[in-house]
Specification:
Bound molecules: ligand 9MR
Radius of gyration: 19 Å
Order of helices and strands: EHHEHHEHHEHHEHEEHEHEHH
Shape: globular
Number of helices: 13
Length: about 325
């Protein structure tokens, strides 16, 4: 797919290993890769003194062999943590040491191979306050700036992102995030961009909201990654029939969003990443236990109207 900025996909490593159709679409249609799960703490850092690079290295080699940009997801999150972290006993400086070792071992391992990292993921509540995660409880609100500082020390060239959801639809949350990050920047901490996850849907998402988000974030001089895009056609979890009209709505919303993204200055366009290839393996189906069709390819890996719209809009 030709575009002026990277078009990425979240890769499920098991599909990549076992499904040749999946692999060929990943190679042919996308030029940036985000690991959907295997760079998270529970996979990479299962024991205090042991990092498991097996799957991560094979995905990295896949990216090198096929000339894909690799985006790291994610260093500090409150989910998908290994038991040893959940059970860790220590004072705040022990916890700081824990995140320092965690972040720097991982960032160093991928130095020169990963272009950008989601350093901190989902640290804010919907009302704009800081989420009371395990990290905040153990280290205090300063864990966020420390995470950025540690990542930067390990690789001064890698791009550093804050990543969260509903930043397009909730201006309160977005403004809190921007204000918080600006404050860190004013104190000399390097933050390059913001990931707007974009788990959106055809009922409540308006392209104009997305336009405001793109504008306010780029006006504050952050690169923007639409980092986990999928478009639910059944957000209310009803009994639905997948129809042409639903897929056309989905395609049109995607088209409008891509048009908006094309309008921001090129230096802010880190890229648009889809959170999977086929509807069949989208996280939405399992997580919400509902029928849905949020991605570019159907259950048989055939391109949907959204795919055609993307291609014609880019
Ligand atoms: O897609 C991921 C799914 O396979 C995992 O089970 C889930 C665990 O919470 O995480 C999903 O990815 C999430 C991403 O890492 C952060 N933003 C929300 C995504 C969807 O839940």
């Amino acid at each position: 797919m030709h575009s002026d900025f990277p078009i990425g996909v979240a890769i499920d490593i098991n599909e990549l290993y076992s499904n040749s159709l999946y692999k060929s679409i990943a190679i042919k249609q996308f030029n940036s890769v985000t690991p959907e799960n295997i760079f998270k703490a529970e996979y990479l850092h299962p024991e205090p003194a042991f990092f498991d690079w097996t799957d991560a290295d094979s995905l990295t080699n896949f990216c090198i062999a096929n000339n894909k940009r690799l985006h790291g997801h994610t260093l500090i999150w409150h989910q998908q943590l290994p038991q040893w972290i959940l059970n860790f006993q220590g004072n705040s400086s022990d916890w700081e040491q824990l995140i320092k070792t965690h972040i720097q071992t991982i960032v160093l391992h991928f130095k020169g191979k990963v272009t950008g990292w989601d350093v901190v993921n989902e640290a804010f509540n919907e009302d704009g306050t800081l989420r009371n995660t395990i990290w905040r409880q153990k280290i205090g609100a300063g864990y966020i700036e420390k995470a950025f500082i540690y990542a930067h020390e390990a690789d001064p060239n890698v791009l550093l992102f804050y990543n969260d959801y509903n930043l397009e639809s909730n201006p309160n949350k977005r403004n809190s995030v921007i204000g918080f990050l600006n404050n860190l920047r004013n104190r000399g901490i390097k933050i390059d961009g913001i990931g707007i996850q974009m788990h959106i849907n055809i009922l409540s998402t308006e392209a104009t909201q997305v336009a405001s988000a793109l504008q306010s974030i780029s006006n504050n001089d952050y690169q923007i990654h639409l980092s986990e895009l999928d478009i639910s056609v059944n957000p209310l979890g009803k009994d639905i029939t997948p129809s042409q009209s639903l897929f056309t709505k989905q395609a049109n919303l995607l088209g409008e969003i891509v048009l908006q993204y094309k309008q921001i200055p090129a230096r802010y366009q880190y890229g648009i990443t889809f959170w999977g290839i086929s509807d069949k393996t989208s996280w939405i189906i399992d997580y919400f236990n509902r029928e849905d069709y949020p991605l570019l390819y159907d259950d048989n890996y055939l391109p949907k109207p959204a795919y055609c719209k993307l291609k014609e809009t880019l």
